[in-house]
Amino acid sequence: MTLIVSAIGQGLIWGLLGIGLFITFRILNFPDMTVEGTFPFGAAVCVSAITHGLGPAEATLLAFFAGLLTGLVTGLLYTKLHIPILLSGILVMTGIYSVNLRVLGKATVGLLHKKTLFSCSFLTSLPENFPSVFVGTAFSVIVIILIALFLNTELGQSLIATGDNEKMALSQGINTNDMKILGLMISNGLIGLCGGIISQNNGYADVNMGIGTIVIGLAAIIIGEVAFGNLSLTVRLIAVVIGSILYRFVLLIVLKLGFGTNDFKLISALVLAICLSLPLFEKKFKTSIILKKGVERP
Amino acid sequence: MSENILEMQNVTTCVNEGTSEEKEILKNISLNVKRGDFITLLGTNGAGKSTLLNVINGSLSPRSGSLKIAGNDVTKLSVVKRARFISQVFQDPKAGTAPRMTVAENLLLAKRRGQKRRLKLRGLNNALPEFSELTKKLPNGLSERLNTFTGDLSGGQRQTLSFLMATMGNPEILLLDEHTAALDPKTSQQLMELTQNTIEEKQLTCIMITHHLKDALKYGNRMIILNDGKIVLDKSGKEKDNLTEDEILKFFTN
């Protein structure tokens, strides 16, 4: 039971990373590798801020701004210097590793006996693992509402149009480069925020904690889509968070099957590969029809 | 207010600039377009018709020459900045609309063409009555599909939508790049009629590329033929009305 609650809590918090990635991967329609640098950057900034005496709320906010900054850098490399987006992301992700070491001072910094978002008296009174469910739900709800509202503004619609049909967006007078930068900033802001919250939940920040995060985010998006199909944008944001929780359940099952946590990255990659290839299998073998028949036949 | 909505002075463009493959596409073209002109633009493949439109809409900057729209020098302005004056319908029905946005959302984007996009709610519901009114007049039942994703529309519906989007804001100049070429004859005919009626009703200035000699003769008050980057024929009014297919065809044999 505690394992399931823990999976839900982790899924909810990591859902923020999924939503961030959704903005670039699905709305702007390009893969942003910055994630792997932004996530530990958010964590490093947050932990460093707390160890330097800042309150947890301010530290978490700083993690968000740290993400905005990495998104801005990637966006400028991509739109102003015309470096392909994949490479822009990889450059920032690589460069930020050194910055993270500078910010933290060493590879790992713990938050033992420091005040975090999770140490307020209400949360510590909850049973084990429930604090992360509470914090995760609160942040997910706020972020989904804000992003859904934003996408319904004139600016948000321009962002969607940019990802949908750039030629058309340009001819409507939408500055698509600005929109790409804006999208990258919001996306990475959320990812930095996620890094900040996760570091407080784990009680430490580590320079290597970004490895594989892009797969975790993509898994949340894809599992959400496979499970819920093509829906309106707002509902798709919710689907990402649910996908993130489902992904944690998959890991839980894998753990129960006797694999170790060291196998997680391989399993994650496999899960993502399977989910991404589902449409092809669907087309080739009509799996859904076969499945339906299997159910119908006594 | 200047009578010429578009003034093009000695425009030359070229591809592969600075290499041995350098080739001039438009050669020292000067062109004045009067407010209310409906120009049909003809020419063989490679004559520079699309290049001419690209120079006007700003997606291509000329090597030399200048361009004025409504008295403003726009030579250095980007596509985005020129969107205030110009709208365009492309040949490819997919090019003019955003597929994962609904018909109404696309119309809303077009309604703000060239304006600043703010952090302000888009106001889709307030605009719906206006949009259903606008689409009612159109062929192929767009008015019942305001909430359909444009990716799910037929090519004809999409192109009709693109045309509506291009004309709803009364652009200073409307550019049509073979906008009926990808459609079946009947739909193509419908869209051409809609084009004619809209331009007349709104008194728009329009440059239309076409490969149909009959359309080029039937529509518009002025005809321009491009050949090898130069204007080889430019007739308007009575002179244009008196042109025949045979006379035009002469310009295509080279």
From TrEMBL, chain A:
Membrane topology listed for this record: Multi-pass membrane protein
InterPro entries xrefs: ABC_transp_permease
Compartment list: Cell membrane
Recorded GO CC terms: plasma membrane
Keywords linked to the UniProt accession: Cell membrane, Membrane, Transmembrane, Transmembrane helix
TM helices/strands, residue ranges: 6-25, 61-78, 85-105, 133-151, 181-198, 210-228, 235-258, 264-281
Keyword set includes RNA-binding: no
Lipid metabolism among keywords: no
GO terms assigned for molecular function: transmembrane transporter activity
Leader sequence segment: none
Record protein name field: ABC transporter permease
TrEMBL record, chain B:
Coiled coil location: none
Domain ABC transporter: 6-253
Molecular functions (GO terms): ATP binding; ATP hydrolysis activity; transmembrane transporter activity
One GO term describing the cellular component: plasma membrane
Pfam families named among the record's database cross-references: ABC_tran
Domain of life: Bacteria
Keywords from the UniProt entry: ATP-binding, Nucleotide-binding
InterPro entries: AAA+_ATPase, ABC_transporter-like_ATP-bd, ABC_transpr_LolD-like, P-loop_NTPase
Gene3D superfamilies xref list: P-loop containing nucleotide triphosphate hydrolases (3.40.50.300)
Protein name, entry field: ABC superfamily ATP binding cassette transporter, ABC protein
